[in-house]
Amino acid sequence: MREDRTTKGIIAVLLLLVALVSFTAVGKVASNPQMYHHTIAALDQKEQNVLKLTAGATATSVLITLIPDDIATPLADKLADVAGYLLIVICAVYAEKYLLTITGFAAFKILIPAACLIGIYCIFRKNDWGKQLAIKLSIFALLLVAIIPVSIRTSEMVEGVYAESIEATMEEAEHAQEQVGSKDAILEKAKAIINNYVQAVAVFIVTSCVIPIVVLIFFSWVMRIFFGVTIPMPKARKRGRPAAEA
Question: Strand, coil or helix: what is 6?
Fold first, then answer.
């Protein structure tokens, strides 16, 4: 009996230490933006690229309207719509930046300490449901921290495939006036520029919006596998039938 209590006490102390270390040291590091220097640098670069494309798309849209007889006005309107889609990408980039530190804070300053405290309670109360909850919170915290870095790393791999195309489109954005506003600008060239913009925007939407959602769905599926535990509910006691009267 004493050995059992000693073992429980040691486990409780270890869980308390994990909670304290997670809340103080690990939580401080995980919520520090410097911890995600590489990831934030990649997001900053993407933000700059998207801003260049947005400015170039807006400028090119205005310049296309200068083509005589308004034959390119529908193309200009289409390019203006493309610039609007880029705002969605900008919002997604900012959201990823903020979520990097928020998820680290939530995981190591709230979820893991809470899981440890629940585990300590369950050690002495023999609560199986509480143990399952503690395990779920711990796994959820770790997966929560990994979602954004994994999605950004996956996005970088996809963007690397289209790096040359995006770079060419950005160069066109920087020299939009020379390409469209010159005297020899023609309708076919305007169409080619718009096609390049559409391709670049599609890549950024996939890497900034679609891939994070896919990663989130994948992690949700993983969590469902880990958390697919039936919570035991107390069964109602069956009342005995009254004895039959003689």
Answer: helix
User: Mind listing the pLDDT tens digit for each residue in 137-177?
Assistant: 888 888 888 888 888 888 888 877 777 777 777 676 666 55
Mean pLDDT within 99-125: 88
Q: What angle do CA 209, 165, 167 make, to 5 degrees?
A: 90
Question: What CA–CA distance (Å, rounded) separates 13 from 117?
Answer: 10
Residue burial 222-236, b: 16+ Cβ < 10 Å; e: rest:
eeeeeeeeeeeeeee
Q: Using CA atoms in the order 194, 198, 201, 207, what is the torsion angle rounded to 10 degrees?
A: -150
Neighbours of 182 (CB within 10 A): 11
Whole-angstrom distance, CA of residue 196 vs CA of residue 6: 69
* Nearest one of 232, 4, 19 to 107, comparing CA atoms: 19
* Residues in CB range of 133: below 8 A, 6 or more apart: 115, 118
Output the pTM of the full model: 0.67
